[in-house]
Amino acid sequence: xxxxxxxxxxxxxxxxxxxxxxxxxxxxxxxxxxxxxxxxxxxxxxxxxxxxxxxxxxxxxxxxxxxxxxxxxxxxxxxxxxxxxxxxxxxxxxxxxxxxxxxxxxxxxxxxxxxxxxxxxxxxxxxxxxxxxxxxxxxxxxxxxxxxxxxxxxxxxxxxxxxxxxxxxxxxxxxxxxxxxxxxxxxxxxxxxxxxxxxxxxxxxxxxxxxxxxxxxxxxxxxxxxxxxxxxxxxxxxxxxxxxxxxxxxxxxxxxxxxxxxxxxxxxxxxxxxx
Length: 275
Hints:
This protein is an alpha+beta fold. The protein is built from 7 helices and 11 strands. Helix 1 (4-16) runs parallel beside helix 7 and helix 6 (175-185) packs across helix 7 (198-217). The longest helix is centred in the C-terminal third of the chain and has 20 residues, at 198-217.
């Protein structure tokens, strides 16, 4: 958390204005204040502040769960991890608890990286595509077809739930949208990925794209104090609904632990794998 829909919502706000802030493209970084040095993953804090100051923000995009700020010479990569958030405000606003990095921008704006649990990281890199080359395909790209998903599933020997959480297999999915997609596709989270039928693969491909697009449409999910403004949590079918009736068949939703992650599913709509 945040996952692809939450990060995409943040990126759109930074790019177009929203969530109470102004759009970032066109603004120049005039100064930086790093109050938690470990928030800067690369380069050193000294190198980071020296190199980033004076650069202009050209565009804001997303790759997987990474926010990408395209600068005129380099790029800022921001991974929010468990509790990170970004806000744009007028310079001079009072510092909030857990503000880790503040970028002072032209036009009297500030971009603030807030991270209570201190797991989020920021990189300043020359080639962001090379840095993120290990990520899997974007599930909403036109190039990501049913055929590509089938091919990637055939060469693995892993269970489907932990496989979908692996960012090198597919970029952007986390616990929420994986559970929701598997339920929509009627696939048990412990099913062997390489044994899914052609029909199941097609259902899974459609379900992944469907839940992600719905999550984006609803500005992501706000299920704790970290992420602001989403409403997809009001439309969960299985996630965090253990003991509640499945909206498809009425059976109680179950919770198990898969790969150290709480996993929610319907035992009737998503029967255990046999064979």
